[in-house]
């Protein structure tokens, strides 16, 4: 069966997450339903990351096995037609080797978190960013983020229901951008690692927001990390500002030949 990689963008607001569920809307369920309109009896698709309810994606990657030898462009067009009216789009599609696996072949995952600081409620970005009504200071947040880089036991920043075999992970990057936003400022957190624990990015951002607000110091974040205790974590921020921005592979499956 020919194997195809799909680069998928979605608004996670109406979904219970990526993973298919029997009684709730999911992104996987929407994509598989669209595939079923093209070919019946297909196996389940696999994705690079199982995003939670309300989390968005700019570059989720999934793979599927089809019986027909589709032209990748025509496959993406057909899927986008059948995905309507869901807020899901296939933005790229490529034929890949049989041993390509969207999850297990990935060597890095990149997340973006958008945080807006302004007094006024959000209108156009509601559900797409996390808004706080107070000012934030970039410098101490970035200083605190440096304490999280590298290989650590991230028990403090791991959800209690996380099913990962080990809390030890290597964080490759956590960079914060500060930019103008109508009526305030937007802070963009760019996070990169091979893999993440459940709620790890949202735990990072919720804790760093406390530093930017002046309630914590960068040294408090270092102490929280070293405590290896979930109770030492700051607040876990809401999912609406989180995006799976991209997935890295040894060879880019979507690179133009």
From TrEMBL:
Gene Ontology MF, one: tRNA pseudouridine(38-40) synthase activity
Its EC number(s): 5.4.99.12
Gene3D superfamilies named among the record's database cross-references: Pseudouridine synthase I, catalytic domain, C-terminal subdomain, Pseudouridine synthase I, catalytic domain, N-terminal subdomain
Key words of the record: Isomerase, tRNA processing
Catalytic activity: uridine(38/39/40) in tRNA = pseudouridine(38/39/40) in tRNA
Enzyme active site: 52
InterPro entries recorded: PsdUridine_synth_cat_dom_sf, PsdUridine_synth_TruA, PsdUridine_synth_TruA_a/b_dom, PsdUridine_synth_TruA_C, TruA/RsuA/RluB/E/F_N
PANTHER family noted in UniProt: PSEUDOURIDYLATE SYNTHASE (PTHR11142), TRNA PSEUDOURIDINE SYNTHASE-LIKE 1 (PTHR11142:SF0)
Quaternary structure and interacting proteins, as annotated: Homodimer.
Annotated protein name in UniProt: tRNA pseudouridine synthase A
Organism for this UniProt entry: Rhodovulum kholense
């Amino acid at each position: 069966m020919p194997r195809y990689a799909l680069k998928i963008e979605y608004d996670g607001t109406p979904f219970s997450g990526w993973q298919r569920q029997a009684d709730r809307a999911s992104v996987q369920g929407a994509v598989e339903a669209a595939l079923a309109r093209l070919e019946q009896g297909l196996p389940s698709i696999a994705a690079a990351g199982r995003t939670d309810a309300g989390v968005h994606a700019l570059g989720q990657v999934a793979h599927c096995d089809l019986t027909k030898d589709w032209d990748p462009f025509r496959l993406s067009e057909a899927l986008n037609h059948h995905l309507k009216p869901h807020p899901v789009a296939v933005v790229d599609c490529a034929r890949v080797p049989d041993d390509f696996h969207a999850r297990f072949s990935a060597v890095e995952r990149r997340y973006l978190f958008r945080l807006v600081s302004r007094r006024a409620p959000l209108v156009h970005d509601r559900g797409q960013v996390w808004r706080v009504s107070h000012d934030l200071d970039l410098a101490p947040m970035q200083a605190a983020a440096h304490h999280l880089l590298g290989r650590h036991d991230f028990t403090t920043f791991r959800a209690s229901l996380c099913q990962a075999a080990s809390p030890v992970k290597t964080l490759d990057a956590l960079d914060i951008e500060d930019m103008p936003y109508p009526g305030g400022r937007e802070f963009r957190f760019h996070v990169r690692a091979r893999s993440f624990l459940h709620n790890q990015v949202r735990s990072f951002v919720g804790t760093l927001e406390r530093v930017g607000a002046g309630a914590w110091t960068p040294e408090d974040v270092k102490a929280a990390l070293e405590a290896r205790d979930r109770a030492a974590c700051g607040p876990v921020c809401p999912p609406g500002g989180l995006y799976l921005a991209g997935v890295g592979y040894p060879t880019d499956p979507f690179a133009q030949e």
